[in-house]
Amino acid sequence: MSTSTSTTTKGLDGCSDAPSSSTKSDIPIPKESTNKDEPKLTAFQLRQANRLADRMEGFHNHFRHLFRSIYKLADNYEEEDYNTREFISYADQLHQYLGLHHNIEEEYVFPVLAERMPEFRDEHPQSHRAIHDGLDRYEAYLDKCRKDPSKLDPAELKALMESFEQVLFKHLDEEVQSLRWDNIKKYWTLEELRNIPM
Fold first, then answer.
1. Residues 85-116 as b or e (16 or more Cβ within 10 Å = b)
2. pTM over the 0.85 mark
3. Residue 20 pLDDT more than 80?
4. Using an 8 Å Cβ cutoff, are 142 and 88 in contact?
């Protein structure tokens, strides 16, 4: 892997900086794994094998919490000492952070995994598009309310969230499952996984 000058990029959660010394073009694509009969992994090796899944699960838990928090807060944000503009700003974090997370995945993570794993060429990018169909409508509504906070209707906001809730939460689960060792070992060896950045 290239050891070029380090740059700083947003983390996959879209809200924390993470150092990166690689670009997509720097990441080597190993030859297809042919190790079909790997010995049982030690506990330490299993943690390494599930590193990508565990890291992704951490990001995804953030998005699950944020979605549920916004949905619950919509009905009583004033009781929690938010004014309408503050709540709209908080609700906008879902679009901002999830959008950035998906952009980073599609630019740096999916192209590497898709070299061998068909779900990162087809299923997961398609899920992103379905999620953003609803997420973009959600953001357009928030934009309207930002210009005129009196237009905010909690029931309408929640209905928009419900329109992409199922596809979002299904994707958050399935993407992590794709990265679990039980699945990813069909395509990559443990040593190769250590060279895939996240």
1. eebbeebbebbebbbbbbebbeebbbbbbbeb
2. no
3. no
4. yes
Cα separation, 156 vs 119, whole angstroms? 34
> Using CB atoms within 10 A of its CB, is residue 84 exposed (0-12), middle (13-18) or buried (19+)?
middle
Query: Which amino acid belongs to residue 86?
Result: E
Six-digit token pair at 55? 């890291």
What is the arithmetic mean of pLDDT over 117-143? 97
Alpha helices in 114-195 (DSSP H): 123-147, 154-179, 181-184, 190-193
For the chain, helix (H) and strand (E) counts, in that order, are 8, 2
pLDDT on residue 175: 98
* Structure-derived torsion over alpha carbons of residues 160, 166, 171, 176, reported in degrees to the nearest 10: 120
Question: Considering only 24-28, 45-49, 101-105, 143-147, which range has the smallest mean pLDDT?
Answer: 24-28
Which of 2-6, 11-15, 149-153 is predicted most confidently?
Answer: 149-153
Distance of alpha carbon 74 from the chain centroid: 23
